[in-house]
Amino acid sequence: MGVGAIGAAIGEGYTAAEANLAISRNTKSAGDIFKSMLIGQAIAESASIFALVIAMILLFTKFSATSYVTVCAIFAAGLSMGFGAIGSGIGAGFPAGAACTGMSRQPALSGKLTTNMLIGSAVCQTPSIFALVVSFILIFTDFSGYPVSPGCAAVLGAGLAIGLGAIGSGIGGGVVAESSCNGIARQPLTITPVTNVMLLGQAIAQTPAILGLLISFILIYKGFPATDSIAPSMALLGAGICMGVGAIGPGIGEGIASSGGVKAIARNQEVVGVITRSMLVGMAVAESTAIYSMVIALVMIFVA
Amino acid sequence: MAIEGADVIRAAAFIGAGIAMGFGAIGPGIGEGLVAARACEAIGKNPQEAGLLTRTMLVGQAVAESTGIYSLVIALLLLFVV
Description:
The complex is a heterodimer. Chain A contains 9 helices and no strands. By secondary structure, chain A is mainly alpha-helical. Chain A has one domain: Four Helix Bundle (Hemerythrin (Met), subunit A) (Up-down Bundle). By secondary structure, chain B is mostly helical. The longest helix of chain B has 31 residues.
């Protein structure tokens, strides 16, 4: 919860700062800008509300802790949601800020900008929803049949894989939505290609978080034979850290790449095909390190 | 639980491989994204040079990728050689 609140705080702070700048530039549309700021902040807040829900469940449920694996699973649920809320909280703040700035420049567009902001920041929330799902699975699955070693490490790894893995995709999706709001405010006629390419870019920026989700599910459901040695446990924990941390960079990077593409399309929509192609090639290359991380994680789970 | 020297070394190698590849992936991921963003913006300004710009983008990304590949090599060494 503590960690999860960081992201929401940064995101909302950014939105409020942009909104103040925007109002100072164009005091006449202060009402619209203020409304949009509140909506944007509410969405950025939702990630930390997820974290709050999980924290409440953890605090007020009486767990009949039958084994150490259950204890670890509850701890992992907290880690997953706490880290998972950072990215979406920060990410959802970007489009809200850009929409406020855009409204101060083009007050007539405030309806379209708000719609685009809502779509963009809703997509930013998906990584934190993945983290929420994994948290619930970790809290409500009965782990009593799991061997303590390496079961503890497997559930901790599962929490870290999706929790850390959601940071990058959340921020990345936000960067894309920010430049699409900027682009629409400058060139309202380009709204269709800009929104389409924004959704495409955000979808691809989600892939690192989806890889993290995959590794989490494998770690939770595969079932590992009991062992006396410490090495298999560390392999599973290492797989979770590897995939989780490894997904941060590609998630942010793909968001930046796609935001460049969206910006270029907003300026010059005749060449939307050429730009989209280059953007996709660039994002595919940025994805490669996430795939390396997944390969190493799978090797540690299945081979080592 | 019987913990012996060789077991501890293997455990350390596994967790080290995870940390090496995980953190090693952050930099290249962000860096390659920056390259692709600039390339897209440049193509938007000057679409005739799209081929040249894409080629340059790929070369730049390949160089940025190299540290990611170093991390991959180190992780594989830790997993299979140590």
